[in-house]
Amino acid sequence: MRATSGLAIASLVTGLFAWCFVVPGIVAIVLGHLALEQIDRSGGATAGRGMAIAGIVLGWIGVALLGVLVLAWFVAVVTI
User: Fold this and answer.
1) Residue 33: its pLDDT value, please?
2) How far apart are CA 35 and CA 13, in angstroms?
3) Exposed (0-12), middle (13-18) or buried (19+): which is 61, by Cβ within 10 Å?
4) How far is CA 23 from CA 30, 32, 46, 63, 78, in A?
5) Per residue in 7-63, pLDDT tens?
């Protein structure tokens, strides 16, 4: 049985909280990329590629949503 990358798990968990604040989104993206590098270097000994990718995707979605909300707020404030 292959061990799952702890970085992949951390990326997924922080990605799930990315919608709250921008910091977990950025952390999820960074940890996800680090996990992918770790998994590739392990030569098949470490699992968790899907979790790492999910963390990266969730992180980007969280950052993008926050960006859209900030932009909408800015437009609303400027047009008043």
Assistant:
1) 97
2) 13
3) middle
4) 11, 14, 27, 8, 26
5) 999 999 999 887 777 789 999 999 999 999 999 999 889 999 999 999 999 999 999
Q: What is the residue whose two structure tokens read 């960006």?
A: 67
At 19, which helix (H) or strand (E)? none
Report which residue type is found at 3: A
Per-residue pLDDT at 80: 78
Provide the domain limits for residue 19: 3-78
End-to-end, the C-alpha distance of the chain in Å comes to 60
Query: DSSP letter at 20?
Result: T
Look at the chain and report how many structural domains it folds into: 1
List CB contacts of 23: < 8 A, sequence separation 6 or more.
none
Q: What is the pLDDT of residue 19?
A: 73
